[in-house]
Design goal:
This protein is mainly β. It has helices spanning 135-141, 146-155, 173-182, 192-195, 264-269; strands at residues 4-7, 11-15, 24-29, 33-39, 43-47, 53-56, 61-63, 75-78, 82-86, 95-100, 104-110, 114-118, 124-128, 132-134, 166-167, 170-171, 200-201, 216-220, 231-239, 242-247, 249-254, 270-275. Strand 5 (43-47) and strand 6 form a beta hairpin.
């Protein structure tokens, strides 16, 4: 039987080695499942739809037993980008942990403005209803389309770039795109070269007039034989050559010279576009 676990922190950093000072490869969010590959001082894991295999602190993941209630239990999802859980249904009580958008917790009870929840490691807490939603209700109202992806992208404006980041605490370019999909109910691969294989490749006009909102734009090194091998960066097209991306921080640039947000360096590195939303 496959050894699996559930991420236990709001954001779990996955490192290249068993050391918090080693390179961060990716991140997992509270409530995500992970395959446990090896147990030593730290635990080696692989997250769903993520090719990275790396090490996490043992307190960051809770083993999932076959009879564990977590899998089939009702859950809530955190919908605000930042928040906290508390020991009592009172925001002035002791904080249990921080929370970020996309976190999932087991729902125990609904009180007057709070959900009583349980963490994978059995800690219990209260989460304000104002920053969360029952997962079943959230799934029913999800709309995985360009307007919703772009609305989420804009809500993350200004958050700093962090190599390996996939959370509202900081994200790299592909982590940003992945989070925009995740928060709208979509699941896409972790890295930009994988995301470059989603949807349909576009034959672009010289003035880029056939780009549509939500198209994925790829940048990097020109490799004529196999353009995907040259992918180093990704952004999401907004309209009229303008795109939103994580580079330094999440902001907007343009591929067009007459735009005040024109980025000459990235335009030189522009490779191709993929259409995911039709």
């Amino acid at each position: 039987m496959q050894d699996t676990g559930i991420i236990n922190f709001s954001v779990c950093n996955v490192h290249q080695a068993e050391d918090s000072s080693s390179e961060m490869l990716t991140q997992g969010l509270l409530g995500m499942k992970a395959i446990i590959l090896e147990r030593r001082k730290w635990i080696k894991i692989k997250l769903e739809n993520d090719d990275n295999e790396g090490w996490v602190h043992p307190k960051a993941i809770t083993s999932l037993n076959p009879d564990e209630q977590w899998t089939n239990s009702s859950k809530i999802i955190i919908t605000a980008h930042y928040g906290f859980s508390y020991t009592q249904p009172d925001i002035h009580s002791q904080c249990v942990s921080d929370l970020v958008s996309g976190n999932r917790l087991r729902l125990l009870q609904e009180t007057n403005a709070f959900y009583k929840v349980e963490y994978p490691d059995k800690r219990q807490a209260y989460v304000p209803i104002a920053i969360s939603q029952k997962e079943d209700e959230w799934k029913k109202q999800n709309q995985l389309d360009a307007p919703h992806i772009l609305a989420t992208a804009h809500s993350l404006m200004g958050i700093p770039y962090i190599w390996g980041g996939t959370s509202a605490k900081g994200m790299d370019c592909s982590g940003f795109v992945r989070l925009c999909f995740l928060l709208n109910g979509g699941s896409i691969p972790r890295d930009s070269y994988q995301q470059a294989q989603l949807g349909k490749r576009l034959e672009l006009t010289e003035n880029l007039s056939n780009l549509q909102p939500g198209d994925l734009l790829f940048f990097g090194i020109h490799v004529p034989q196999n353009p995907i091998h040259g992918v180093r960066h990704i952004g999401i097209h907004i309209a009229d050559g303008r795109y939103i991306h994580s580079q330094g921080y999440i902001h907007i640039n343009s591929l067009l010279k007459n735009d005040q947000d024109y980025d000459e360096e990235n335009t030189k590195r522009f490779l191709f576009a993929q259409r995911y939303f039709f």
